[in-house]
Amino acid sequence: MPELPEVETTRRGIKPYIDQRMVSEVIVRQSKLRWPVPDEIHQMAGQIVESVTRRGKYILLETATGTALIHLGMSGSLRVVEAGTDAEKHDHIDIVLETGKAVRLRDPRRFGAFLWTKQNPLKHKLIRSLGPEPLTDDFNADYLYQVSRGRSMSIKQFIMNGHVVVGVGNIYACESLFKSHISPKWAAGKVSKTRYKKLVDEIKMVLAKAIEQGGTTLQDFVQVEGSPGYFKQELNVYGRAGESCFVCESSIKQITQGQRSTFYCAKCQR
Prior knowledge:
Elements: H1 4-18, E1 23-28, E2 51-55, E3 58-62, E4 67-71, E5 77-82, E6 91-97, E7 101-106, E8 113-117, H2 141-148, H3 155-159, H4 170-180, H5 193-212, E9 253-257, E10 260-264
Antiparallel strand pairs: 1-6, 2-3, 3-4, 4-8, 5-7, 6-7, 9-10
Helix pairs in contact: 1-5, 2-5, 4-5
């Protein structure tokens, strides 16, 4: 699944092509995504895209008449193509621009979303209860420590909870916990403020680095221009079960938490 760095990379990739550009039409080939694509999406036609922003894993395309909310789901991606380029099987939606370009949504598993709202998008029911963005000052050790008190869930599941903080997906949770020397099995409510300070710093650094390098190379994701991200080459624990830890040479372990695979070093993270 594309995580926050992939979504932010996508946002940055499409922005030069769609920001402050007029939409000539919206072509919907398949409306049955995670939620039905509303007919109102065609209200984008004739409108200028005034901003291209992101909240959590939602890309927001704002116009004077409303805002499109795009979520890439499990396997979705956005491409910039020449308008009229033949659509392939999983190319479901085109935002055609007056420039002759089109932003195309491809989603093989159809678990993504393409929605429309006339209200403030930050008050949309899918967005309004999200936690702070991890790269902002609102996400800090004091905040994380306070909201964790009394929580018995594992620290890994805690930081992956979008109501606590957005965008810390499985890969980056594993990597940040490793760099913080925190076991993913610890109860969130038992972690000290000092350790939370280290964890917050590492989350910010690992996400910023991933965004800078273009996101993590995942099977279902390539950048807008077609080249893969490169952060995966520097992963310390994720996907390395049975291999030696780069720090202590112990074997990387793999367990399941919340139906997701967790990778960690039992010696470094204790």
